[in-house]
Design a protein that fits this description.
The protein is an all-beta fold. Helices cover 0% and strands 12% of the residues. It has strands spanning 4-6, 12-13, 49-51. The protein is globular and about 30 Å long. Its cofactor is Fe(3+). One of its GO terms (biological process) is alkane catabolic process.
């Protein structure tokens, strides 16, 4: 399953780990997320995410 990246803050949604803090189990694909799911970092709506292969990673600074 492909990772999805928030175009506002760079948060990576990884289906392998899900979003357990917000009730999303590991193995949940991005497409299966509820429509009202939001980025856990910046609260962006789901439509602000892009598949990893479409995002230039250099757009976001690396975390140290």
């Amino acid at each position: 399953m492909e990772k999805w990246i928030c175009e506002l803050c760079g948060y990576v949604y990884d289906p392998a780990t899900g979003d357990p803090e917000n009730g999303i189990a590991p193995g949940t694909s991005f497409e299966e997320l509820p429509e009202d799911w939001e980025c856990p970092e910046c609260l962006a709506e789901k439509d602000r995410f892009r598949p990893e292969h479409q995002v230039a990673r250099s757009k976001f600074p690396r975390e140290n």
